[in-house]
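Long-time lurker. I teach an intro course on protein structure, and each term I like to show students one example going from raw sequence to a predicted 3D structure in token notation. This year I'd like something fresh instead of my usual example. Would anyone be willing to generate the tokens for the chain below so I can use it in lecture? Attribution to the forum is fine with me.
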Amino acid sequence: MALWLMLAVVAVAGREVGYMWRYRRLTDGDLSWWQSFKVCMLCEFTSAVTPTAVGGSSLAMVFMNREGINMGRGTALMIITLFLDELFFVVSCPLIVALTGFSDLFGTMNVEFSVGLKWTFWGVYALIAAWAALLFVGIIAKPQWLKRLLAALFSLPLLRRWKRRAARMAVNMEAASVEARSKPVRWWVEAFAATALSWCCRYVLVCFLFLAFVPGSDSWLVFARQGVIWLLLLVCPTPGGSGVSEWLFNEYYADMVATAQVALVVALIWRLLSYYVYLVAGIAVIPSWLRDKKRR
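-- Reply from a regular --
Happy to contribute to a lecture. Here you go:
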């Protein structure tokens, strides 16, 4: 058991190494590993205290700016990180479904829960795919076309009050497009590989916990179901997915755990390593970040 728990901690570290690697790649090395670590911790902390539908990465440009990346470039890179995260789900979810099968992936002891889970999964996936497609058009394919579309859409009477925000978004997307279109394919491949590493480490964390507390469990099925859980948590309205994630975890893995007590232990350790640890880390990093800000 001790070995699997140690590997679970390694998976947590791997998650952050992936994100640090991504910031290093996106900034072409302008952020050091330590600076990337601080940006990661601050993003994780804001993710933990804001609804997951908002996400901590929405403030990444502020954190990068304090580390020497100008706000315009930081905003462009923030949009690119958002696109990479959405792209990972667009690519990985169909693969998980194809390799696992509907009956295993969505089949639980609670039939009503299984049916609702399946339809919610595909609904959220459709939203994520549409958002990823919009980001692709805005930052890679046709940034000017998207700018005109947003201008026309938010000129309608019902949407006119948000026209200024839409115009600001279009400007940010255009800046992201300039940044993205200037990069070689290798840059994109490395950035996506770093993104995939980080997300896969989130999934593998639970695999190690199951190996520690539920010997003989199907590690691939545990991994695959994590893909479903994290996709649904992307649109969760509670801070860090609190409440929803615990309920979803216990319901979804109920058919793989012998007793409710074991399920509770696994769920608590999972949340400790994937959520609460970032509250502590953020609180530890913020004073140093504020001191640096004051000096500047």
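Some talking points for your students: The chain has twelve helices and no strands. The radius of gyration is 20 Å.
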